[in-house]
Design goal:
Layout: E1 2-6, E2 10-15, E3 18-23, H1 34-48, E4 55-60, E5 64-66, H2 71-78, H3 81-100, E6 104-109, E7 112-114, H4 116-123, E8 126-130, E9 134-136, H5 150-158, H6 160-169, E10 172-174, H7 175-180, E11 186-188, H8 193-204, H9 209-220, H10 227-244, H11 246-256
Parallel strand pairs: 3-4, 4-6, 5-7, 6-8, 7-9, 8-11
Antiparallel strand pairs: 1-2, 2-3, 9-10
């Protein structure tokens, strides 16, 4: 595992074509304060420039993925509306960069994932959680509201009624409950998160890189378009992919010849 960046709040490393973003303030349950958000934003931009990286694992040290915002930091930001606007804009842009990225982002939920932590989870493409993880919105438990996309992404992920329940009650779900409503893809025993998420990333590496990028792009169209527009954009995108991307033809030829595809990207 090689180190790419080693800032105070976020460690960035990679192993071959798989990168990792790790929130490092375990003593504070990995808060997503302004400094951390800016470090994540910079790290995501740096990784986006690396064509060799196809998957990024996002996790936290200690017993928390992220418990959300920094309390003292928020109190100070609330006193300075212009600075609070800057923070919200950076958080918004950081999460949108994950969604728009050509990489596949995998959230590895190792413990508490609440408020801003949930908003970070929702921007990722796949989610693996330990059995003991606790996941929820939690903002209203302390008179707060989700300001980094949680109120918009959560209903799209789990449906309006379930999203309202999580937002209004502040209830935290077990990993199995979160999986049942579509917030988590896979639940693994405590202590097995690292091998499970690494194996998932490796499975993705067997696919066409162009295909991975295309599948993510098509799925994310549902976040920004109505059904008819999305269907038309799908036709245009798939036509371009099938007629210009060598991997599309290689996959069919490999199937016909009963062999494993050899993708070019």
């Amino acid at each position: 595992m090689s180190e790419l960046v080693g800032d105070t709040n976020v460690a960035v490393s990679w192993d071959g074509s798989i990168a990792r973003l790790t929130l490092t303030r375990a003593d504070k349950l990995n808060p997503l304060d302004w400094a951390t958000v800016r470090e994540l934003k910079a790290a995501i931009a740096a990784l986006e420039a690396r064509s060799d990286v196809y998957a990024v694992i996002v996790t936290g040290r200690g017993r928390s993925f992220s418990a959300g915002g920094d309390l003292d930091g928020y109190i100070e930001l609330y006193r300075h509306p212009d600075r609070f606007t800057g923070f919200l804009d950076d958080f918004f842009r950081m999460l949108c960069a994950i969604e728009a990225s050509s990489k596949i982002y995998i959230a590895a939920i190792n413990g508490v994932c609440v408020a801003g932590g949930l908003e970070l989870l929702l921007a990722c493409d796949l989610v693996v959680a330990t059995a003991s993880a606790k996941i929820g919105d939690g903002h209203l438990n302390f008179g707060q509201l989700p300001g980094a996309g949680g109120s918009q992404r959560l209903p799209r992920a789990v449906g309006l009624l379930r999203a309202k329940h999580l937002m209004l009650t502040g209830d935290l779900l077990t990993a199995e409950q979160a999986q049942a409503i579509g917030l988590v893809n896979e639940v693994v025993p405590d202590g097995e998160l690292e091998p499970a998420v690494t194996a998932l990333a490796a499975r993705l590496g067997e696919k066409s890189r162009a295909g991975l990028r295309g599948a993510k792009h098509l799925a994310n169209l549902t976040l920004t378009t109505d059904l008819e527009t999305g269907l038309r954009q799908e036709i245009d995108f798939v036509h371009r992919y099938a007629t210009t991307e060598p991997d599309a033809t290689e996959g069919l030829v490999a199937f016909k010849e009963k062999r494993k595809p050899v993708f070019s990207s």
